[in-house]
Amino acid sequence: MAPAREPVERVDPVRGDPAMLLAIWSRTWIGWWCLVPVFAVVVWLVLNVKVFAPVDSPRGWVSRGIYGERFWLENRSALPPDHRAVLRLLVAAGSAGFALIIWGLVALAVWPTVFGATLVVGAQLWRIDRFGWLWERVQPG
Q1: What is the pLDDT of residue 1?
Q2: How far lies 69's CA from each of 1, 27, 63, 93, 130, in Å?
Q3: What is the pTM of this model?
C-alpha cells in the first residue's frame, strides 16, 4: 500500500470535486475548451500525490483517518458493527450524491449538482472521521 500523504491529498475532495464540476459545467461557456480545465484538475490530483511527503506519524485529524483506513483495509474485522452500518450509509449517501451530480451536469441543473456534491463530500469527510476514530481506538497507550 502506498504511504499515507499529508492532509492536502485527503481533503482534495473538498477542493477537487467542486473544481472538476465547475470545469465540466464550463462546457456551456467555452464548449470543447472545457477539456483544458478538466485536464488541469486531473493533473493537480495526480501531481498532488507525488508532491507532498508521506505522513510519518498521524497527528492531525485527516492523518488519523488515513491511518485508520489503512488499518481497516488490513484488519476488516476490527471495525465495530455500528461503524459498518454507518459506512454502508455513507456509501449509499455518496452514491446518491454521485447520481445527483451526473443528473445535474447532464441537465445543467444547479440544485442536483450542488446537493449531490454536498452529499459526496460530506460522506467522504464523515468516512475520514470514522476511520480516525478507529485509529485512535486501536493505538496503545
Answers
A1: 47
A2: 11, 36, 10, 19, 9
A3: 0.81
